[in-house]
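Fold sample X.
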Amino acid sequence: MNDDALNVSVRKFLKKVGVTAQREIEQAVRTAVSGGRLKGNETLPAKAMLTIDGIGLAVEIEGAIELE
């Protein structure tokens, strides 16, 4: 195994995850606010699941999205 290749590959994957997740969250929040389902001052509990089947990894990450 090449540790440098692993590090670069993991970073590329996480960048893709981060950019995609941010875009989807922002779009969903804007839609919910414009549709009246959110006021725009909430703190929304958030949860993400990371799985990698080949190594049996399953990690749940919890946090919050603050709108103000």
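Fold sample Y, listed below.
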Amino acid sequence: MTHTKTPLTHQQILGMFAMSLAVLVVANDFTAFSVALPAMQKVFSADVSTIQWVINGYSLVFGVSIVSGGRMADMYGRRRIFILGATIFAGFSLMAGLATDIWVLLLTRALMGVGGAMMWPATLGMTYALIPEERAGLAGGLILGSAGIGNAVGPLLGGILTDTLGWRWIFLINLPVALIGVLVVLRVIEKDKPAQDKSGFDYGGVALLTAGLLALLLALDLGTDAGWASPHILGLFATCFASMTCFGLFERKMGPKALVPSDVLRNPSFLAAGMVTLLMSAIFFAAILYLPQFMQTDLGFSALNAGIGFLPLMAVFGLTSFVAGSLYEKLGAKLSICGGAAALAAGMFLLSDLQDDTTYPGLVTGMTVLGMGVGLFYSSITTAGITALDPSRASLGGAILYMFQIAGGSIGLGMNTAIVVSAPDLAEGINRAFMLNGVLAVLGLVIALFFVGGRLHKINNKR
């Protein structure tokens, strides 16, 4: 059946522009430090396992806080939570930019994740609420396309600043950008309506979820040095298991107050989308960290040149994300998601052939295919997951999906780091890690094929 697309109003277009700008602020900060890590490592005399927490710590806090941010946005108002999050994000960016100690840097960088975790789901909720339901694919494409541009600009901007003004300016530039985002949102997004959900906030659920994910990430990070069978590492894994088990039991008793309400937990399409996202997310994080490092360490690139060299992946990611919205509307969720998953797997397998004598042209094909997969997959899986839920859960649904993405990426990054540091050299370590990532992507593709996005032969028009 053919559906006539509702044209967008001027106000909706302006609002979507504001949301794109907000997403760009957060997305830029995920990748800008990928080319700056060697310079930061030198300044603070830190090893690779410590300095990776500039990326991993931010991602971890972002991942464990984003569900809370989404719930707060749905309960207390998306615009209000966005502005509060932007203030936190900018404030800790300033503190990180002025840090003279590695542990102060890592702490303030991690706390930036709290602000980002409030901004992102509020942005998703406002975007999907702005436009007609049948144009949801456009919303997903716009948000992930803007994220792609932010991610693409990140390594380039990080390289320019690192080679000129210094890596501290990667933090400091967040202040004016966040201010612009807040001003535009205030101008074009209507004031928040009073919250209809008066059930209260699930602080116990937040604590248990945070403890479980934090214990898991610490175990993965410290296990390489301490030994996987050491009492401390086994204790962390046990803490993770106990916390996540208690979280599941606790949430069942909380009713409408639960951090993750029962109607979300019992939605099979949404949960399948989350599982596929979890499996796929190690790929992007590993590429962000290790491809620029290979370019600088083995190919002799400067930070700026590594940022430019990373553009085939990031630019294709951004462009594909914008096209993905139209493809989703034409092909439906199933074909869009599975096509993106297949490209992710193919890109990883192409890049897993990396050797000591690999030259830059040998990376371009794999990065391009990987960029296509990232852009198509994440836009489509986000839209499919959010639209599987009631519209009142839009911010929470987007937050949970992003939690799966960030948690999966952080877990994958810890796993990749453990593999890389145990290898005889960087190239061999990347080779082994990327091969495993490709296998995980194939597993995610199989789950998507059977459980996500409806029937394969139908265009997935909204019910």
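Sample Y note: The two ends are 11 Å apart (CA to CA).
Also: The domain at 10-202+259-451 is CATH 1.20.1250.20 (Growth Hormone; Chain: A;).
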